[in-house]
Amino acid sequence: MKAAVLYHPGAADQFRLEERPVPVPAAGQVLLRVRAFGLNRSELMTRKGLSPGVQFPRILGIECVGEVVQDPSGQYQPGQRVAALMGGLGRDYDGSYAEYTVVPKAILYPFRSQLPWAQLGAIPELFQTVYGSLHLALKIQAGQTLLIRGGTSSIGLLAAQLARIDGLTVLATTRNAAKSDLLMANGATHVLVDDGQLREQVRALFPQGVDRALELVGATALRDTLNCLKPGGLGCMTGMLSESWSIPDFAPMEFIPATVGLTIYDSGQVTAPASALQAFINSVETGQVKLGIGRTFPLDDIVAAHQLMDSNAAGGKIVVTT
């Protein structure tokens, strides 16, 4: 099989395309024919050597869609369409940047769909992250106000759509005013140009603050985001577009406004049920939800795909097909 192997952390050009034997599944594992996978910021961090515990050489890739080739237990039938994500995939063991991969059954999500593989490849981690952030962490409700910081990211664009469908007023941010139309087309009610200090902009619209906030920029913006929330509001840190997870000299009593809540979402710890994934795929098929796919690349162009992710200029999810 063809695989993109990373022997050493570094720039995108460190990937090496090579032929490897097709892996053999052990008990509790399933062999998949990978058809497509989305790129994720966490893979960029791993590529740079910023993911603790990852040993090289490694085939990256924390998610994929494809077909079952072999399940020693017989639970999954050959040809069955499945998604796989997280659970150590691409970090603790080789992941999806290959034509075949072996995964634990625990991270499989069977689904039914006739969507093209390039569209399906954008869904697993994107959906899990957005659904988990909005419903499992923030517990959004119709009538609430939601601030999405990092609104032009693939997660931000889908979160705006789903929150608007669920009856929320959405404030979405961008550092580039030229992207305002993109945000409005994806469900934003208000667009805020992010200069690093949003509190005054938010409170000009909602003097008491907003009910919920989804933080996708990361630790560098989190304090200001929490100050955009009303008393009793709730913020969720999910992303790290700034590539910053930690807060130096964190003092909770000074950092978090009184009565405001802070949580996080991590699809490696908590995931949505398979029924929710199927319902989301159905909503894409009917056109209720638009998938924001920036560009699609073949596996041979994995270097170019990562270089585009580095540039933050994709304008949506980057998908690689095999």
Give the secondary structure arrangement, pairings included.
Layout: E1 2-6, E2 15-19, E3 29-38, H1 41-47, E4 63-70, E5 81-85, E6 100-104, E7 108-110, H2 117-120, H3 124-137, E8 145-149, H4 154-165, E9 169-174, H5 180-185, E10 190-193, H6 199-205, E11 210-215, H7 219-226, E12 229-237, H8 252-255, E13 261-264, H9 274-285, E14 293-298, H10 302-311, E15 317-321
Parallel strand pairs: 8-9, 8-11, 9-10, 11-12, 12-13, 14-15
Antiparallel strand pairs: 1-2, 3-4, 3-6, 3-15, 4-5, 5-7
Short précis:
The chain is an alpha/beta fold and 322 residues long.
- Write down the oligomeric state: single chain
CATH classification class of the largest domain: Alpha Beta
Structural class determined from secondary elements: alpha/beta
H and E order: EEEHEEEEHHEHEHEHEHEHEHEHE
Quickly count the helices. 10
Can you give the mean pLDDT? 95
Percent of residues in helices comes to 25-40%
| β-strand amount | 25-35%
CATH homologous superfamily (4th level) name of the largest domain: Medium-chain alcohol dehydrogenases, catalytic domain
Q: Kindly state the number of beta strands.
A: 15
CA-atom Rg in angstroms: 20 Å
CATH topology of the largest domain: Quinone Oxidoreductase, Chain A, domain 1
Question: What is the CATH architecture term of the largest domain?
Answer: Alpha-Beta Complex
Keywords: NADP, Oxidoreductase, Plasmid
InterPro entries: ADH-like_N, ER, GroES-like_sf, NAD(P)-bd_dom_sf
Protein name: NADPH:quinone reductase
GO molecular function, one term: NADPH binding
